[in-house]
Amino acid sequence: MxxxxxxxxxxxxxxxxxxxxxxxxxxxxxxxxxKLGPDSSVAWCLYRxxxxxxxxxxxxxxYDYPKFSRLLGEYLAPDLxxxxxxxxxxxxxxxxxxxxxxxxxLGLSTQVPTRFLYLSDGPSRSYSIAGQTLEFKHISRRxxxxxxxxxxxxxxxxxxxxxxxxxxAYLPKLRSLLxxxxxxxxxxxxxxxxxxxxxxxxxxxx
Length: 206
What we know:
The protein is 43% helix and 17% strand. The protein is of the alpha+beta class. It has three domains: 3-75, Arc Repressor Mutant, subunit A; 79-142, no CATH class; 145-206, no CATH class. The strands form three sheets. It has a four-stranded mixed β-sheet with strand order 6-7-9-8. A hairpin with a 2-residue loop joins strand 8 and strand 9. The protein is elongated. The N and C termini lie far apart (68 Å). Mean pLDDT is 91; it is low at 1-5.
């Protein structure tokens, strides 16, 4: 055995170093480490890190590296939006946040939801995570709005707001979210929206 072999970091150490690079609040599944070692070995290492209290298991095969609040003296709840994205990546689903979930994600709603709903081309499923419900509702791929995740969120949020989009309560907030990329994607998506929804988006884009 060479010196390099004797001092090579273990699989558990390499997984832990990867998680630390991602930072507190990161969410991940076994699949994120497939390049580091066999599935069974990765699963065992994640189990050991969970047992040591380093990471937290959210549901089967899904974990987070929780943030700690010094003010509250406890670990914070996971970001369910990030959890939804990781589950979608794991199972190869395409997802879009529902209207109320999109409003919450974009900071346009002050309500603290206990249920996060996503539309998915995968099976309808529900997960209970940290006292909150994460739900995926199956719809046909044809029913998805076109675009990237940023524009999809914006479209779902404005669809939920309806005529409120063009009021002083929301119009400045919506315009503050616009980036050059988002403006371009929304313009491309306009032909796929209803006539009324197109009017809302055009007013925001002015």
